[in-house]
TrEMBL record:
Transmembrane segments: none annotated. InterPro entries: Calponin-like, CH_dom, CH_dom_sf. Residues 7-121 form the Calponin-homology (CH) domain. The lineage of its organism: Eukaryota, Metazoa, Ecdysozoa, Arthropoda, Hexapoda. SMART domains: CH (SM00033). It comes from the Eukaryota. GO terms for molecular function: actin filament binding. CDD domains: CH_LRCH. One of its GO terms (biological process) is actin filament organization. This is Calponin-homology (CH) domain-containing protein. Pfam families: CH. Coiled coil: none annotated. GO terms for cellular component: actin cytoskeleton.
Amino acid sequence: RREFEKAKEEAELIQQLRTNIETRLKMSLPADLAPALSDGVVLCHLANHVRPRSVASIHVPSPAVPKLTTPRCRRNVDNFLEACRRIGVEENMVCCAGDVLEGRGLVQVAITVAELLRFHQPRSPAHIPHPPPPTYPSTA
């Protein structure tokens, strides 16, 4: 029963990750989310959505070379994680590069993105305080 609850919470976090990215970047993601995020491009754009120019340069695939090289993917992911730290995401909430690059730590990526989005300031003049931090299922 406990395992079922944990799996359900993780599935909800991953669905929330998809929804957050799709609504904020006005794009649709493929059914298999991990490979779509593994090159770091979408995550870098998301960081720039939260705080413009937080990732100064993003390596993107081109029509000639539709798949980024591993070092370029790594650079994008490292730049995204560094932007999260600079924006204010606490270190214990930042996923590791391997979670993104290998696509195995999608729950951790979802937690990092949820934390990052707490720092997004709406463009309206009214200041809205940050909501309290959400509670996440333990990853132990």
